């Protein structure tokens, strides 16, 4: 296993992190215990969970009793609270669940909007408890996790309050590059959220993606592309069953620059967008804001993937989250577009945005085919 410095925290983390969100899923606790054992034996000694992940912290607490705590780095995440006291209560709940007297790293969970950032930084609020907990050695370091648009991430990075960031950035999703670059400038640790799932459900790849990736697997190529950025510290891998580690472990020792053959395979992914011809969306975001809050760039990114890589199933998985996942996956679906035309002059590629949105809806929406607003 290769390890990297987690920015200014000076923690030394493996390039693969065990993301333990699913640790509470299998009924038989021996299953996640085995997942954890395999991870730790392979050198994956950074485990990441959250208070919001159901029974994950409690299960981990029991499972990790059988391991040498001193050799582990634990990150948990807690959403921002209104007051210092409420935040302290939450910190105590997490430690109790984990059966630990400290964690090396705490992330404020889900700074997804400017309002959440304000709440996090509000005077007398949760950061006060965090600072006290750091002084008392209950928390080692403070970071944040985010599913926000890039401008919110940049604003959060620029507060200087955090030592690390936990965000989305993959071969097939590069909108957060400015945030990655800024975090590197600020010497912050960077953890990439679940690249195999959020990066395109790569554990169930389409035939097209498999063929374009050869001789690598899509998971392998995406891991390699991401970790070949020297400023990125670690990638979370969320295995539910022990054998799932097999797809990831071959990358544990490969953290150098991309080889020529790997670069050529990534280039084949890139070239595939040419299939979209004049309907390709660069996901620049210039078309926003939409008065109906339609998430134009993300919908058209999913359309890009469906058209270029046959990734319709991934599109369906993400598309149904609009209007259902709050600020974790914000914005409205395409059928809320009223064809007002506001976005059209802002698109540098001159795309017929409503037409592409409706096409994307027809490809990806599996729910009731309700009438469009103007019908
Ligand atoms: S045309 Fe549709 S997507 Fe564009 S701004 Fe109007 S409502 Fe939004
Ligand atoms: S529709 Fe146009 S403006 Fe909007 S994200 Fe795509 S390319 Fe950019």
Could you list some keywords that capture this structure?
TIM Barrel; 375 residues; single chain; binds iron/sulfur cluster; alpha/beta
Can you walk me through this structure?
- This protein is an alpha/beta fold.
- The chain folds into 2 domains: 3-258, Alpha-Beta Barrel (TIM Barrel); 280-364, no CATH class.
- Helices cover 36% and strands 12% of the residues.
- It is built from 13 helices and 10 strands.
- It has helices spanning 30-41, 56-64, 84-98, 114-121, 126-135, 150-158, 177-185, 207-213, 218-227, 260-271, 296-309, 312-319, 353-364, and strands spanning 3-5, 12-14, 16-19, 46-48, 73-78, 103-108, 139-145, 164-167, 189-192, 234-237.
- The strands form 2 sheets. The protein has an 8-stranded parallel beta barrel with strand order 3-4-5-6-7-8-9-10, surrounded by 5 helices. A two-stranded antiparallel sheet has the order 1-2.
- Strand 1 and strand 2 form a beta hairpin.
- Helix 2 (56-64) packs across helix 3 (84-98), helix 6 (150-158) runs parallel beside helix 7 and helix 9 (218-227) crosses helix 10 (260-271).
- Residues 281-287, 296-297, 300, 346-347, 349, 351, 353 line the site of one iron/sulfur cluster.
Number of helices: 13
Which stretches are low in confidence, meaning pLDDT under 50 for 5 or more residues running?
371-375
Extended strand count = 10
CATH superfamily of the largest domain: NADP-dependent oxidoreductase domain
CATH top level label of the largest domain = Alpha Beta
The CATH topology name of the largest domain reads TIM Barrel
Main sheet record: 8 strands, parallel, barrel
Helix/sheet category = alpha/beta
Order of helices and strands: EEEHEHEHEHHEHEHEHHEHHHH
How does the overall form come out from the CA principal axes? globular
Mean pLDDT: 94
- The domain count comes to 2
Q: Give the distance, in angstroms, between the N- and C-terminal Cα atoms.
A: 57 Å
